[in-house]
Amino acid sequence: MDRFFLGQSPSIDAGAVTSISFLITDRFSILSFSAATQVLKTANDVLGRKAYEFDIVGSDTLEVTSDSGVVVRADYSLSDLRVEPRRRQPDIIYLFAGAIVDSTDRRQVSAWLRELVRRGGRIVGFDTAAFWIASAGLLTGKVCTLHWESIPIFEERFGMHVEVSRDVIVESGMITTCAGQASAIDYVLHLIARDHGELVATRVSEAALVDRVRACNEPQRVPLQIKLGIANDRLVHAIECMMKSLDRLVVIDDIADAVHVSRRQLERLFRAEFGLSPSRYHMVLRMERAHLLLSRSNLSVLEIAASCGFGSPPHFSKTYKGIYGVPPQQTRQLARGAASVSETTQSKLGLQRPIGAAPDEIPEPQERMLAQAS
Fold this sequence. Notes:
Layout: E1 18-24, H1 30-47, E2 52-58, E3 63-65, E4 71-73, E5 76-77, H2 78-83, E6 92-97, H3 107-118, E7 122-127, H4 129-135, E8 143-144, H5 151-158, E9 163-164, E10 169-172, E11 175-178, H6 183-196, H7 198-207, H8 224-228, H9 233-243, H10 252-258, H11 263-274, H12 278-296, H13 301-307, H14 313-324, H15 328-337, H16 343-349, H17 364-373
Parallel strand pairs: 1-2, 1-6, 2-5, 6-7, 7-11, 8-9
Antiparallel strand pairs: 3-4, 10-11
Helix pairs in contact: 1-6, 1-7, 6-7, 12-15, 14-17
């Protein structure tokens, strides 16, 4: 097994107990939650004692529904703790936040987080927890991360005051943010290595059948070369430049200059790989950003159009419908009307296709959408 933890030695006294409160909000990620709890439980087993003790706190009620529909019963709710505080406050709060981040009253959560920071405690936020922590005013001037799907929405709301990283884990003082999902395992293993040393963390990894632990600064998403099956580095670089400019039109000559090819050569590369011109490909990327914002945020259609570089809402709506087959308002209605979209609707909206899939992998409706995008 590779050495994951760079020879770390224990940083806390033998016999010390770390107290952790798992704060869960409606539609929290059951994967992140289960990963963290199980790895900490395995660490206790490996150490032969309760090195980590934890309880579960519901942000509003005792019974909290996860993103998969599984209901978890908390030990306390935040309302309970305000009426009858526990004797011992946690050393760390693990905040597992749900996917819907705009409609929930976060005042109680914000107050509890601020109180912990005043006492010198630590906060670890998973998935979309950065929304909650930023709303509490605790990320201003700091760097954070969150699940990549929610980054565009977060940047629209907090980008002026908080720097966003695409790394899996970011530590910024007493606040750590993690992209969540499977990367929750990576974070907890790094915590164990820091607390109890490399040997213990490696034994926990073996027990959990984890054969690779990502470094904190690894990117969340699969590299474009692998995702799109592209071997041409210049084409990959061009797409990366486009993905950094989804809020505006790009000048294709500038992209060509950045990757050190002529405009004509760049056009040939895109047409050979995707059957689209660079400008049309960038338009599809902008519409994917729009789709994400329509599905996952409460931003108005006008605000979303502006954030995707459209000065005219009618032009935005026409372009969006040309690619997804429905107007922006219908996408929003579908997202709000059901927790999950049916397989038929997913196909209609083109949610299954990664941009740049091989032609024989693109379903027929998507071929029509791409043709209309041109």
